[in-house]
Amino acid sequence: MNQTLRRVAVIGGARIPFCRSNTLYADQTNLDMMTAALSGLVDKYGLAGVEMGEVVGGAVVTHSKDWNLAREAVLGTKLAPTTPGITMMQACGTSLQAAFGSAAKIATGQIECAIACGSDTTSDPPIVFSKKFAHRLAEVGQQKTMMGKVGVFKGMSPAELAPLPPSTSEPRTGLSMGQHCELMAKEWNIGREDQDQLAFESHQKAAAAYREGWMDRLVVPHAGVYRDNILREDTTVEKLATLKPSLDKSGKGTLTAGNSTAMTDGAASVLLASEDWARERGLPIKAYLTFGETSANDFVAGDGLLMAPTIAVSRMLKRAGLTLQDFDFYEIHEAFAAQVLATLKAWEDADYCRVKLGRSEPMGSIDRAKMNVKGSSLALGHPFAATGARIAANLAELLAVNGGRGLISICTAGGMGVAAIMESAR
Predict the structure, then answer these.
(1) Is 304:284 a contact under the CB 8 Å cutoff?
(2) Can 135 be counted among the known catalytic residues?
(3) Of 113, 117, 181, 411, which one is the catalytic site residue?
(4) 353: annotated active-site residue
(5) pLDDT (tens digit per residue) in 126-140
(6) Is 92 a catalytic residue?
(7) What residues have CB less than 8 Å from 298, skipping those under 6 apart?
């Protein structure tokens, strides 16, 4: 038995344009969008009729009918119908975590190729009723007679018919991700001006990426949409400064609609393979996925909800024998501008690095000119489960063109973080 781990090649990715929720994709489902992203990848790399080792991915906001989402998406593409589809979810880290699992199977020889993917929509959320009314409906199915069925509703209050609005608040705290991030901004003294500046830069870099044709490498049209519709090429720091705080309205809040990611619909995918499989198909290797790490913190006890990536990156760098400065590109998911800035401050903070990361010295600063050079989630959008695949595909392109090494850092709900290292194949 061969015990040598193989290198995991990143061939490239494809995604559909990301759109603000309840706009251009208002009638699209997670299945529609995941199928479109996969189909774009199939067409791009000539995978029609090919049996992949697996397609792994999922969605965060999803209906119970999508219990087999990845497999159904596979069956909607030109991939061989014998391709397994595995549905999984880890909040905003879903598609990057999917890539880790598939990469491990490729590295050990279990499979030769895989696609990691994710889709999300808040335009098509699951609408549920109260538990009491749901129990009545379940009981109706157990009744044998019409009188019995009618009797189930005896004493029912009209209030039971009120649907429960979808919520992404943390069950353990009752706070939304934005409310948690507002607390982080206060803890780390992240100012409003710095947040708006980071958001402005994200939009400017994403707009430049579109103008230079960069996004043509990554984005495939879907449902008549050709471009991310959250991107604001004409935004300015002055315009962002006029927006009112959206969460803490006491006069001390700093998070606004402009420096926080918008609710987004979209899907993305990324193709991984062994070197042999890529060469046999004549597919150039853009990069290698060399390290991955997942972490969690005790946010219920007061750790910042979105600070777990600081832990994941620290652990991963120790395993890799690298420092925070040993990278040519940094892809740090922009859930909120404040979250990015708090992460950077934490790595620079001696006490945090000692107490939370077990380090004798601060990890230090990064060269901000190397961070999110083609824009990120504040400008492009954040369909929760799709963001990891978007970032991995974008970084692979950067490394293919420029060479070097890249770092990925993604925060997720539940106080978790997902991080990865990718290296150029050049």
Answers:
(1) no
(2) no
(3) 411
(4) no
(5) 878 788 888 888 889
(6) yes
(7) 415
